[in-house]
Amino acid sequence: MRVGLFVPCYVDQFYPNAAIATLKLLQKLGVEVHYPTNQTCCGQPMANSGYEHLTKNCNSLFIENFAEFDYIVSPSGSCVLHIKDHLHDETREGDAQGIRKKVYELVEFLTDVLKVEKLTASFPHKVGLHQSCHGQRGLHLSSMTELVDQPFSKPMQLLNQVEGLEIIELTRPDECCGFGGTFCVAEEAVSAKMGKDRVEDHLMNGAEFITAADMSCLMHMEGILKRKKSNVKVLHIAEILNAG
Amino acid sequence: MSTTSGIKHPELSDIFNRDEERVNWHDDTLWWIRAKRDKAAHSISEWELLRETASQIKDNVLSNLHNYLVEFEAKAQANGIVVHWAANAEEHNKIVLSLLKAKGINQMVKSKSMLTEECHLNEYLEKNGIDVIDSDLGERIVQLAKEPPSHIVLPCIHKKKEEIGQLFHEHLGTAEGVSDPQVLTETARIHLRETFLTRRSALTGVNFAIAETGEFVVCTNEGNADMGAHLADIHIASMGIEKLLPKKKHLSVFLRLLTRSATGQPITTYSSHFKKPRKGQEMHIVLVDNGRSVQLGRESFRNSLKCIRCGACMNTCPVYRRSGGHSYHNAIAGPIGAILAPNLDMKEYADLPFASTLCGSCTNVCPVKIDIHDQLYKWRQVIVKEGHSPAAKTIAMKVMDFTLSSPTRFKLAGKIGRWTLKNAPFTVNNQLNLWFKNREMPTPPKESFSEWFKKNNK
């Protein structure tokens, strides 16, 4: 099994540890991971701003980098969802459709493809799990409070395998953090307020760390935490699953 | 009555957010209603099947709208109801006015109708010498405050009881400082009772109209539609053309969904069926298009017409809860307003589809399964293509495309960005950076992942 590691642009530049943990975790689990060094971005920031027509170059670059792999895995539910929903290329439409079917967010790749049942990680801390919207409502990484459905959670399935980790309960288990891509500056007031409220829920319930399957939400919440001079830290779920 | 005047959602939200305590109160109040909705939905094991059924019935209605409208018209006429057709808001308002004038009536009582808000009927009638009193308590409160409703089901949800007390003191003569809901409601009741007894004309909205029988159903919790309609000489019902259901048996699906989605109640206190005028009464229905057939022709957006106006998408929307209904500067606020409004005026409402993080919660609570957040995404594309996006944003996006199209340029830009954050943070951490207003920038790492990879994976 040849897996292409897709590292979202902002993770590459600002959160290399999340990508390193993803790579090491996959290697630890015996996966042959390749990192195409010419990758940039999935194009979502432009598409969500209404400029999907400007993502053609990003799309062809993505296909060029990833078409050859059996699976494409990324530590970001949001970027994966964008590829799954919107990757097109008139000249390589077959490859585009193929990628849409074989691109996975890290957590779902671990639970659904590798069927990981036992991890050797240890993280003796109180952790709050933030359900990133695109991972949850888009990729169905877990059940959603709005729907009448059997409860399940793929991130929890993995976090439960981490020794010493204690999950805290949240008052609102799946509310958006307010990042929303360019929304975070275009709608600054509401975005920041949503971020503050989400962080407060974790703090009130005693989290030492906040984790998620999406670094963008964590980046947003980290910005709020630092402004509050809080000691609570954010960590991508890969860093916890690969800890100890 | 407009509270805006050209100011857009981000600015209006910014103003709303200056009083953080108030935002917290507004958010908690609506979240409480969302929680009640969840409880009601989870108490019905076939909830998702109900949603799917309602969605399919409405799909059928939209695909056969012409036939159902013609059938409804014929049946309603046979029942003795006069049917009028209005292509737009202006025609609707003129029809209502002419019906009142013909009877020499200059006072009207109105129960809740979002359609009349959409058509700005109150202002029109007032300009033409007709005194309108809204009989839904929430609507009456915003009417006294000279404000538009901020929510389609809970028109005065943005007002605290103390503010309502002050309004009642000014307009209805309660003692100053009284804010006990029991006292205020009783005062409104006495005031409206007099209105019901003296008004000769009543206008109601329509929640559902049945093609098979020619009847229509009005759902209220206060019984105010019935009080108005039963005592008036002339009952006018304003109805959007999408409100149809094929058969009476379909109604049960929608009555089970409507109020559970809206407020978590099993059903509205009153679900009143109007089929024919009582002896000596006139009953009129005004069927209003006002952009609906245009929306029906937009493939990506047509199913927004399935909406039954429950307001669940507003209650769940984390943006709506923290920006308030007036920030949408449209009769219908929230996620559903944001996908309906651009159809009416794309330029004026170009901001609304962007007032969302695309979290998708709206789509999940929608009782008729409108793909609201996908339509928000699609509207963004249309709005940009039609040229309603700010020029600066277009330039920024082109620069982004230029940078991200080339791995070399991307790596260089990243390097410059990280260097700047580390060595000249003042160029980023300042008032020009909207992120920085309430959030710290990420700490730049010493190397990017790709730099690390180059060193460590040879």
UniProtKB/TrEMBL annotation, chain A:
GO CC term, one of those recorded: cytosol
Superkingdom of this protein's organism: Bacteria
Gene Ontology terms for molecular function: oxidoreductase activity
InterPro entries the UniProt entry points to: Cys_rich_dom
Domain Cysteine-rich: 3-84, 127-221
Protein's name in the database: (Fe-S)-binding protein
Record organism: Pedobacter petrophilus
From TrEMBL, chain B:
InterPro entries named in the record: 4Fe4S_Fe-S-bd, 4Fe4S_Fe_S_CS, FTHF_cligase-like_sf, Helical_ferredxn, LUD_dom, LutB/LldF, LutB_C, NagB/RpiA_transferase-like
Biological process per Gene Ontology, one example term: lactate metabolic process
Domain 4Fe-4S ferredoxin-type: from-to ranges: 297-327
One Gene Ontology MF term: metal ion binding
Gene3D superfamilies: Alpha-helical ferredoxin, NagB/RpiA/CoA transferase-like
Any Pfam family matching the protein: Fer4_8
Keywords linked to the UniProt accession: 4Fe-4S, Electron transport, Iron, Iron-sulfur, Metal-binding, Repeat, Transport
Protein name: DUF3390 domain-containing protein
